[in-house]
Amino acid sequence: LSMHLMDEGLQYASDDIVLIAPNGQAMGVPFVPTLKSGSWPIVKKLRPDLTKLPIHRRADGKQVRYLKPRELAHTGNFPLSWIVFLERTPTTSKMLEPLSQLETMKMWIDATYSPEGRLSTEAFHSIKRALSNAQSFRLRYADTAHAKDVLIGLCNDQS
Asked: Which tens digit of pLDDT belongs to each residue from 88-114?
């Protein structure tokens, strides 16, 4: 999905990991996209140079390729406009469902990692600040190209 969004001109900030600053702004951790072998045929259509990249075996045994984005990653902090939780299933048609702040907070906390094992009060307030100005959604989809269309539509609806 990230490859499809970058192909549409969106900036790349991170592959899965985002840090939240005390002021509630986000900062991507600049790891290059990790592409598992199942995604190679799809991504190859967007990035023919994929087949020239070496194949690596991760500690979990999965074969992956690391694909450097065509443009430099977005750097620095940025405010969140949208928070989209992805739910990919083989049979779901695309659906963008708005979430309440309470639903978003629960989902976010469930997905949060803290070295201390639990969120500090400061971390909780940082998440609250991030949520205060962002709209939240759950995107259910089966096809990444269709999911990309939904997200591009969301971007285009922004005034």
From this structure: 888 877 689 999 988 998 898 888 877
